[in-house]
Amino acid sequence: MSVLVSGATGFIAQHIVEALLNENYKVIGTARSQEKGDNLKKQFNNNPNLIMEVVSDISNVNAFDHVLEKHAKDIKVVLHTASPFHFNTTEYEKDLLIPARNGTLGILEAIKKYASQTVERVVITSSFAAVYDVEAPPSKDLVYTEKNWNPATWETAQKNAVMAYCGSKKIAEKTAWDFLEKNKNVVKFQLSTVNPVFVFGPQLASSSVGDTLNTSCELINAVLKSKPSDVLATSIAGEFIDVRDVAKAHLAAFQRENTVGKRLVMSNGPFSSQTICNVIHKDFPQYDGKIAPVAKDTDVDNGNVSFVLDNSATKKLLGWEFISLQKSVDDTVAQIAQVKN
Ligand code: NDP
Questions:
Q1: N- to C-terminal Cα separation, the chain
Q2: Which range of residues forms the domain containing residue 323?
Q3: What percent of the chain has pLDDT over 70?
Q4: What is the count of structural domains for the chain?
Q5: 126 C-alpha vs ligand 1 centroid, how far in Å?
Q6: Which of 5, 21, 27, 143 has its CA 20 to 30 A from that of 250?
Q7: CATH number of the domain bearing residue 296
Protein backbone atom coordinates (compact mmCIF):
# COMPACT_ATOMS: atom_id res chain seq x y z
CA MET A 1 0.00 0.00 0.00
CA SER A 2 1.23 3.49 -0.89
CA VAL A 3 0.63 7.03 0.31
CA LEU A 4 0.36 9.71 -2.36
CA VAL A 5 1.78 13.09 -1.28
CA SER A 6 1.08 15.99 -3.64
CA GLY A 7 3.57 18.88 -3.61
CA ALA A 8 6.14 16.58 -1.98
CA THR A 9 8.95 19.10 -2.49
CA GLY A 10 7.29 21.70 -0.23
CA PHE A 11 8.53 22.78 3.20
CA ILE A 12 5.81 20.92 5.13
CA ALA A 13 5.54 18.00 2.68
CA GLN A 14 9.22 17.08 2.95
CA HIS A 15 8.75 16.55 6.70
CA ILE A 16 5.64 14.47 5.97
CA VAL A 17 7.55 12.32 3.47
CA GLU A 18 10.31 11.76 6.02
CA ALA A 19 7.80 10.77 8.72
CA LEU A 20 6.12 8.33 6.29
CA LEU A 21 9.41 6.75 5.19
CA ASN A 22 10.44 6.41 8.85
CA GLU A 23 7.29 4.36 9.39
CA ASN A 24 8.11 2.22 6.34
CA TYR A 25 5.29 3.45 4.12
CA LYS A 26 5.76 3.41 0.37
CA VAL A 27 5.42 6.99 -0.81
CA ILE A 28 4.46 8.36 -4.21
CA GLY A 29 5.34 12.05 -4.28
CA THR A 30 4.46 14.63 -6.91
CA ALA A 31 6.75 17.47 -7.98
CA ARG A 32 6.38 20.16 -10.64
CA SER A 33 9.29 18.86 -12.72
CA GLN A 34 11.43 15.77 -13.18
CA GLU A 35 14.43 17.68 -11.85
CA LYS A 36 12.66 18.68 -8.64
CA GLY A 37 11.50 15.09 -8.18
CA ASP A 38 15.00 13.70 -8.77
CA ASN A 39 16.48 16.18 -6.28
CA LEU A 40 14.00 15.11 -3.63
CA LYS A 41 14.81 11.44 -4.24
CA LYS A 42 18.51 12.21 -3.85
CA GLN A 43 17.77 14.01 -0.60
CA PHE A 44 16.26 10.76 0.69
CA ASN A 45 19.32 8.78 -0.53
CA ASN A 46 17.25 7.27 -3.36
CA ASN A 47 15.19 5.35 -0.81
CA PRO A 48 13.40 2.71 -2.93
CA ASN A 49 10.20 3.36 -0.96
CA LEU A 50 9.95 6.83 -2.51
CA ILE A 51 8.90 7.23 -6.12
CA MET A 52 8.18 10.56 -7.76
CA GLU A 53 5.74 11.61 -10.47
CA VAL A 54 5.51 14.94 -12.29
CA VAL A 55 2.41 17.11 -11.78
CA SER A 56 3.44 20.40 -13.29
CA ASP A 57 0.44 22.62 -12.57
CA ILE A 58 -2.46 21.81 -10.30
CA SER A 59 -4.50 24.62 -11.91
CA ASN A 60 -5.29 22.02 -14.56
CA VAL A 61 -8.15 19.91 -13.16
CA ASN A 62 -6.80 16.83 -14.96
CA ALA A 63 -3.31 17.29 -13.52
CA PHE A 64 -3.48 14.22 -11.25
CA ASP A 65 -5.23 11.83 -13.66
CA HIS A 66 -2.08 10.07 -14.90
CA VAL A 67 -0.82 9.51 -11.34
CA LEU A 68 -4.04 7.97 -10.05
CA GLU A 69 -4.49 5.97 -13.24
CA LYS A 70 -0.98 4.50 -13.01
CA HIS A 71 -1.01 3.75 -9.27
CA ALA A 72 -4.72 3.12 -8.69
CA LYS A 73 -4.19 -0.32 -7.15
CA ASP A 74 -1.52 0.78 -4.68
CA ILE A 75 -2.72 4.08 -3.30
CA LYS A 76 -4.76 3.75 -0.11
CA VAL A 77 -4.02 7.18 1.32
CA VAL A 78 -3.82 10.60 -0.34
CA LEU A 79 -2.25 13.61 1.39
CA HIS A 80 -2.91 16.73 -0.69
CA THR A 81 -0.46 19.41 0.43
CA ALA A 82 0.23 21.20 -2.88
CA SER A 83 -1.13 24.75 -2.97
CA PRO A 84 0.47 28.13 -3.54
CA PHE A 85 1.43 29.91 -0.30
CA HIS A 86 2.81 33.39 -0.99
CA PHE A 87 1.56 36.94 -1.24
CA ASN A 88 3.65 38.06 -4.24
CA THR A 89 0.91 38.53 -6.80
CA THR A 90 -1.83 40.84 -7.96
CA GLU A 91 -3.26 38.11 -10.21
CA TYR A 92 -5.26 36.59 -7.40
CA GLU A 93 -7.37 34.18 -9.43
CA LYS A 94 -4.57 32.82 -11.57
CA ASP A 95 -1.89 32.54 -8.91
CA LEU A 96 -3.86 31.67 -5.76
CA LEU A 97 -7.56 30.89 -6.12
CA ILE A 98 -7.55 28.70 -9.23
CA PRO A 99 -4.62 26.40 -8.31
CA ALA A 100 -5.94 25.96 -4.74
CA ARG A 101 -9.49 25.08 -5.82
CA ASN A 102 -8.65 23.13 -8.97
CA GLY A 103 -5.83 21.25 -7.25
CA THR A 104 -8.21 19.97 -4.59
CA LEU A 105 -11.02 19.24 -7.02
CA GLY A 106 -8.64 17.64 -9.52
CA ILE A 107 -7.06 15.19 -7.07
CA LEU A 108 -10.50 14.16 -5.73
CA GLU A 109 -11.95 13.74 -9.25
CA ALA A 110 -8.93 11.60 -10.19
CA ILE A 111 -9.57 9.39 -7.12
CA LYS A 112 -13.22 9.10 -8.16
CA LYS A 113 -12.25 8.20 -11.74
CA TYR A 114 -9.49 5.68 -11.09
CA ALA A 115 -9.39 4.67 -7.42
CA SER A 116 -12.85 5.15 -5.95
CA GLN A 117 -12.77 1.79 -4.16
CA THR A 118 -9.07 1.67 -3.24
CA VAL A 119 -8.36 5.05 -1.66
CA GLU A 120 -9.52 4.84 1.95
CA ARG A 121 -8.32 8.06 3.55
CA VAL A 122 -7.75 11.56 2.17
CA VAL A 123 -6.11 14.37 4.12
CA ILE A 124 -6.20 17.91 2.76
CA THR A 125 -3.60 20.39 4.04
CA SER A 126 -5.91 23.31 4.65
CA SER A 127 -5.01 26.21 6.92
CA PHE A 128 -6.13 28.35 9.83
CA ALA A 129 -6.58 30.85 6.98
CA ALA A 130 -9.72 28.87 6.08
CA VAL A 131 -11.00 29.50 9.62
CA TYR A 132 -9.89 33.08 10.32
CA ASP A 133 -11.86 36.13 9.17
CA VAL A 134 -9.26 38.64 7.95
CA GLU A 135 -11.73 41.54 8.15
CA ALA A 136 -13.20 40.84 11.61
CA PRO A 137 -12.53 43.72 14.03
CA PRO A 138 -9.90 42.69 16.61
CA SER A 139 -11.42 41.57 19.88
CA LYS A 140 -10.44 39.30 22.75
CA ASP A 141 -14.01 38.03 22.62
CA LEU A 142 -13.52 36.74 19.06
CA VAL A 143 -12.95 33.02 19.63
CA TYR A 144 -12.10 30.66 16.76
CA THR A 145 -12.46 26.90 17.04
CA GLU A 146 -12.41 23.96 14.62
CA LYS A 147 -16.00 24.90 13.70
CA ASN A 148 -15.37 28.36 12.20
CA TRP A 149 -15.11 29.31 8.54
CA ASN A 150 -13.61 32.41 6.95
CA PRO A 151 -16.57 34.15 5.20
CA ALA A 152 -14.60 34.82 1.98
CA THR A 153 -16.21 34.21 -1.40
CA TRP A 154 -14.46 33.97 -4.79
CA GLU A 155 -15.29 37.67 -5.32
CA THR A 156 -14.52 39.12 -1.85
CA ALA A 157 -11.23 37.22 -1.75
CA GLN A 158 -9.88 39.38 -4.57
CA LYS A 159 -9.23 42.57 -2.52
CA ASN A 160 -5.57 41.91 -1.78
CA ALA A 161 -3.07 39.05 -1.67
CA VAL A 162 -3.67 38.13 1.99
CA MET A 163 -7.41 37.89 1.46
CA ALA A 164 -6.85 35.95 -1.76
CA TYR A 165 -4.62 33.41 0.01
CA CYS A 166 -7.08 33.03 2.90
CA GLY A 167 -9.96 32.78 0.42
CA SER A 168 -8.07 30.20 -1.63
CA LYS A 169 -7.66 27.96 1.42
CA LYS A 170 -11.29 28.33 2.50
CA ILE A 171 -12.63 27.64 -1.00
CA ALA A 172 -10.28 24.68 -1.53
CA GLU A 173 -11.19 23.08 1.80
CA LYS A 174 -14.91 23.66 1.26
CA THR A 175 -14.55 22.09 -2.19
CA ALA A 176 -13.26 18.91 -0.54
CA TRP A 177 -16.05 18.60 2.06
CA ASP A 178 -18.70 19.38 -0.60
CA PHE A 179 -17.16 16.83 -3.00
CA LEU A 180 -17.38 14.12 -0.36
CA GLU A 181 -20.96 15.00 0.53
CA LYS A 182 -21.94 14.83 -3.16
CA ASN A 183 -20.00 11.63 -3.88
CA LYS A 184 -20.32 9.71 -0.63
CA ASN A 185 -22.02 6.83 -2.39
CA VAL A 186 -19.41 6.71 -5.15
CA VAL A 187 -16.09 7.01 -3.34
CA LYS A 188 -14.91 4.96 -0.38
CA PHE A 189 -12.52 7.45 1.25
CA GLN A 190 -12.97 9.29 4.51
CA LEU A 191 -11.77 12.87 4.77
CA SER A 192 -9.81 14.86 7.35
CA THR A 193 -8.11 18.24 7.12
CA VAL A 194 -5.05 19.69 8.83
CA ASN A 195 -5.40 23.45 9.41
CA PRO A 196 -2.12 24.91 10.65
CA VAL A 197 -1.40 28.48 11.71
CA PHE A 198 2.06 29.88 10.73
CA VAL A 199 4.40 26.91 10.51
CA PHE A 200 7.94 27.38 11.84
CA GLY A 201 10.85 24.98 12.23
CA PRO A 202 13.92 23.83 10.32
CA GLN A 203 13.90 22.92 6.64
CA LEU A 204 14.22 19.16 6.30
CA ALA A 205 17.43 19.67 4.30
CA SER A 206 19.86 22.50 4.93
CA SER A 207 20.21 22.83 1.16
CA SER A 208 16.73 24.44 1.18
CA VAL A 209 18.06 27.37 3.24
CA GLY A 210 18.58 30.32 0.90
CA ASP A 211 18.51 34.09 1.43
CA THR A 212 14.73 33.88 1.55
CA LEU A 213 12.88 30.99 3.16
CA ASN A 214 9.36 29.69 2.59
CA THR A 215 6.67 32.26 3.50
CA SER A 216 6.15 31.28 7.16
CA CYS A 217 9.79 30.65 8.14
CA GLU A 218 10.73 33.94 6.50
CA LEU A 219 9.05 35.62 9.52
CA ILE A 220 11.92 34.27 11.65
CA ASN A 221 14.51 34.99 8.95
CA ALA A 222 13.22 38.60 8.80
CA VAL A 223 14.17 39.06 12.47
CA LEU A 224 17.68 37.80 11.67
CA LYS A 225 17.80 40.34 8.82
CA SER A 226 16.77 43.23 11.15
CA LYS A 227 19.23 46.01 12.10
CA PRO A 228 20.24 46.97 15.64
CA SER A 229 18.36 50.27 15.17
CA ASP A 230 15.09 48.55 14.19
CA VAL A 231 12.12 48.52 16.53
CA LEU A 232 10.18 45.31 16.05
CA ALA A 233 6.46 44.87 16.43
CA THR A 234 5.49 43.71 19.89
CA SER A 235 1.89 43.21 18.86
CA ILE A 236 0.84 39.68 18.06
CA ALA A 237 1.58 38.72 14.48
CA GLY A 238 -0.33 35.45 14.57
CA GLU A 239 -0.02 31.98 16.06
CA PHE A 240 2.66 29.38 15.41
CA ILE A 241 3.08 25.61 15.21
CA ASP A 242 6.21 23.59 14.51
CA VAL A 243 6.51 21.77 11.18
CA ARG A 244 7.32 18.47 12.89
CA ASP A 245 3.98 18.57 14.72
CA VAL A 246 2.22 19.42 11.44
CA ALA A 247 3.83 16.42 9.73
CA LYS A 248 2.88 14.15 12.63
CA ALA A 249 -0.71 15.43 12.46
CA HIS A 250 -0.92 14.44 8.78
CA LEU A 251 -0.07 10.87 9.77
CA ALA A 252 -2.55 10.88 12.66
CA ALA A 253 -5.15 12.28 10.26
CA PHE A 254 -5.17 9.05 8.26
CA GLN A 255 -3.94 6.46 10.77
CA ARG A 256 -6.54 7.00 13.45
CA GLU A 257 -10.27 6.47 13.57
CA ASN A 258 -10.85 9.46 15.86
CA THR A 259 -9.66 11.90 13.17
CA VAL A 260 -12.20 10.86 10.52
CA GLY A 261 -14.29 13.85 9.43
CA LYS A 262 -12.25 16.21 11.61
CA ARG A 263 -10.52 19.53 11.00
CA LEU A 264 -7.27 19.49 12.98
CA VAL A 265 -6.43 23.09 13.85
CA MET A 266 -2.72 23.08 14.61
CA SER A 267 -1.47 25.89 16.86
CA ASN A 268 0.69 26.16 19.95
CA GLY A 269 0.02 29.80 20.78
CA PRO A 270 0.65 33.36 19.68
CA PHE A 271 3.92 35.10 18.78
CA SER A 272 5.19 38.55 17.88
CA SER A 273 8.36 39.52 15.99
CA GLN A 274 9.78 40.76 19.29
CA THR A 275 9.03 37.47 21.03
CA ILE A 276 11.05 35.70 18.31
CA CYS A 277 13.81 38.29 18.68
CA ASN A 278 13.96 37.75 22.44
CA VAL A 279 14.33 33.98 21.97
CA ILE A 280 17.19 34.58 19.51
CA HIS A 281 19.00 36.89 21.95
CA LYS A 282 18.59 34.40 24.78
CA ASP A 283 19.91 31.38 22.87
CA PHE A 284 22.24 32.87 20.21
CA PRO A 285 24.45 35.53 21.84
CA GLN A 286 26.37 35.87 18.55
CA TYR A 287 23.50 38.02 17.27
CA ASP A 288 23.87 40.62 20.09
CA GLY A 289 24.44 44.05 18.52
CA LYS A 290 23.73 42.66 15.03
CA ILE A 291 19.94 42.49 14.98
CA ALA A 292 17.10 44.43 16.65
CA PRO A 293 17.64 44.60 20.42
CA VAL A 294 16.03 42.47 23.07
CA ALA A 295 13.03 44.18 24.64
CA LYS A 296 11.80 43.80 28.16
CA ASP A 297 8.49 42.34 29.01
CA THR A 298 7.49 41.95 25.39
CA ASP A 299 6.19 38.47 25.70
CA VAL A 300 2.86 38.13 24.04
CA ASP A 301 0.43 40.43 25.77
CA ASN A 302 -2.78 38.52 26.19
CA GLY A 303 -4.57 41.74 27.08
CA ASN A 304 -4.06 42.91 23.49
CA VAL A 305 -4.97 39.87 21.48
CA SER A 306 -6.96 40.47 18.31
CA PHE A 307 -8.57 37.05 18.56
CA VAL A 308 -8.46 33.90 20.64
CA LEU A 309 -7.80 30.52 19.08
CA ASP A 310 -9.25 27.64 21.06
CA ASN A 311 -7.97 24.42 19.48
CA SER A 312 -8.43 22.35 22.62
CA ALA A 313 -10.55 19.83 20.68
CA THR A 314 -7.64 19.14 18.29
CA LYS A 315 -5.11 18.95 21.14
CA LYS A 316 -7.34 16.46 22.95
CA LEU A 317 -7.79 14.34 19.82
CA LEU A 318 -4.09 14.22 19.00
CA GLY A 319 -2.94 13.88 22.60
CA TRP A 320 0.72 14.89 22.36
CA GLU A 321 2.41 18.07 23.56
CA PHE A 322 3.28 20.43 20.71
CA ILE A 323 6.82 21.78 20.27
CA SER A 324 7.37 25.13 22.02
CA LEU A 325 8.04 28.46 20.31
CA GLN A 326 11.50 28.52 21.86
CA LYS A 327 12.50 25.15 20.40
CA SER A 328 10.91 25.91 17.04
CA VAL A 329 12.74 29.26 16.76
CA ASP A 330 16.00 27.77 18.12
CA ASP A 331 16.03 24.92 15.59
CA THR A 332 15.13 27.26 12.71
CA VAL A 333 17.83 29.80 13.63
CA ALA A 334 20.50 27.16 14.37
CA GLN A 335 20.07 25.77 10.86
CA ILE A 336 20.21 29.22 9.22
CA ALA A 337 23.30 30.16 11.29
CA GLN A 338 25.04 26.93 10.35
CA VAL A 339 24.34 27.41 6.62
CA LYS A 340 25.40 31.06 6.63
CA ASN A 341 28.72 30.40 8.43
P1 NDP B 1 5.67 25.45 0.04
O2 NDP B 1 5.58 26.62 -0.89
O3 NDP B 1 6.99 25.06 0.55
O4 NDP B 1 4.96 24.19 -0.62
C5 NDP B 1 3.92 24.29 -1.54
C6 NDP B 1 3.99 23.11 -2.49
O7 NDP B 1 2.93 23.21 -3.45
C8 NDP B 1 5.30 23.10 -3.30
O9 NDP B 1 5.70 21.78 -3.52
C10 NDP B 1 4.88 23.78 -4.61
O11 NDP B 1 5.71 23.43 -5.69
C12 NDP B 1 3.48 23.19 -4.78
N13 NDP B 1 2.67 24.03 -5.67
C14 NDP B 1 2.30 25.31 -5.50
N15 NDP B 1 1.60 25.75 -6.55
C16 NDP B 1 1.53 24.72 -7.43
C17 NDP B 1 0.95 24.54 -8.72
N18 NDP B 1 0.28 25.53 -9.33
N19 NDP B 1 1.09 23.34 -9.32
C20 NDP B 1 1.77 22.32 -8.74
N21 NDP B 1 2.32 22.43 -7.50
C22 NDP B 1 2.21 23.61 -6.87
O23 NDP B 1 4.70 25.83 1.25
P24 NDP B 1 4.34 25.07 2.60
O25 NDP B 1 5.05 23.79 2.73
O26 NDP B 1 4.46 26.08 3.65
O27 NDP B 1 2.78 24.81 2.36
C28 NDP B 1 2.25 23.52 2.08
C29 NDP B 1 0.77 23.55 2.33
O30 NDP B 1 0.51 23.94 3.67
C31 NDP B 1 -0.01 24.53 1.44
O32 NDP B 1 -1.24 23.94 1.13
C33 NDP B 1 -0.23 25.72 2.39
O34 NDP B 1 -1.36 26.47 2.04
C35 NDP B 1 -0.42 25.00 3.71
N36 NDP B 1 -0.16 25.81 4.89
C37 NDP B 1 1.09 26.31 5.15
C38 NDP B 1 1.33 27.04 6.29
C39 NDP B 1 2.67 27.59 6.64
O40 NDP B 1 2.76 28.42 7.54
N41 NDP B 1 3.75 27.17 5.99
C42 NDP B 1 0.23 27.34 7.24
C43 NDP B 1 -1.04 26.74 6.87
C44 NDP B 1 -1.21 26.00 5.75
P45 NDP B 1 6.94 24.42 -6.09
O46 NDP B 1 7.69 24.74 -4.84
O47 NDP B 1 7.73 23.63 -7.06
O48 NDP B 1 6.29 25.64 -6.67
A1: 43
A2: 2-340
A3: 98
A4: 1
A5: 10
A6: 143
A7: 3.40.50.720
